[in-house]
Amino acid sequence: MTRDLLVLDAVTKRYRSGPPAVDGVSLRVGSGETVALVGESGSGKSTLARLALGLLAPDSGTVRFDGHDPGRLFGRAARPVRARLQFVPQHPRGSLNPALRAGEAVAFALRVHGTPRAERPALVADLFHKVGLDPALARRRPRELSGGQLQRVAVARALATGPDLIVCDEPTSALDTTVQAQVLDLLTGLQRRLGLALLFISHDLGVVRQLAHRVVVLRHGRVVEEATPDALWHTPRHSYTRALLAADTPPATQ
Ligand SMILES: Nc1ncnc2c1ncn2[C@@H]1O[C@H](COP(=O)(O)OP(=O)(O)OP(=O)(O)O)[C@@H](O)[C@H]1O
Ligand SMILES: [Mg+2]
Q1: What pTM does this model have?
Q2: Ligand 1 binding pocket, CB closer than 6 Å
C-alpha cells in the first residue's frame, strides 16, 4: 500500500446551471502510482482535474494533497507544497506564453519556486534532456515548435519544481498517433524513474491500459467503476464501462 498523496472525499461541484459536473467523487492517488480517469466528453474529468489542483473550490467534500487543501496553497510559505503538485494541460500552445522562449518558460517555473538565477540555465538544459528535447530548442518560441515538442516543454516545466504528483489532462489527445506514443513513453519512463504519481485523464482506453495502475471510470460526474486495467478489460462490471471498451478502437496492426 502506497502513501496517500491526493485524496478526494465526496467532492461535488456544480457550475451555475445544470446538474453537478462532479457529484460525490472520492478517489485517492498514492505516491508513485498512476491513476487514470476515463469517461466520455462532459463526464467531469477536467472539472475533477481543476478541483484536484485547487484551481476550483468544491461545493462540498474535501480535496487534500499530502494533507493540504490545494486551493489554499498561497504565498511563500505554501511554495514547497505547491511545487510538488503540477499540471500538464491538453493544449500546451494555450498554456505556454507565446512571447516567452521555451527555455524561459521552464526557467520561469524555477524562478517562481525560488531557484537562484545562476542555477537556472543548467537546470533548464538538464530538464530538456530529461524530456528528450535538444537544449538548443530552448531558444525557440512556442509557435516555432511542433505539438509534440511543445508537450515535452510542458512536461519539463511541470518537472522543474520536483513534483511528487502531476495531473495530466488529456496530454496526448491533441497529438498524432506516433507523437502520442512518444509522449506516453516519456511520461511512463519519468513515472518509473522519478517515482512520480500521475492522475492521468484520457478518453482513450488504449492509452490508459499502457500506463495506469488503476482506472477510475467517470460518468455524469460520478464514479461508476474502479479497477486495475486488467480487471477492467477482462471483467468490466458496469454497462457503461463495457460501452466505453466497445467504442475503443484497437491499435492498428503493422
Ligand atoms: N466553466 C464552466 N461553466 C459551466 N459549465 C461547465 C464549465 N466547465 C465545464 N462545464 C460543464 O461541466 C460538465 C463537465 O465538463 P468537463 O469539462 O469537466 O468534462 P470532461 O470530461 O473534461 O469533457 P472532455 O472530455 O470534453 O474534455 C459538462 O457538462 C460541461 O458542459
Ligand atoms: Mg476535459
Answers
A1: 0.93
A2: 15, 21, 39, 41-47, 203
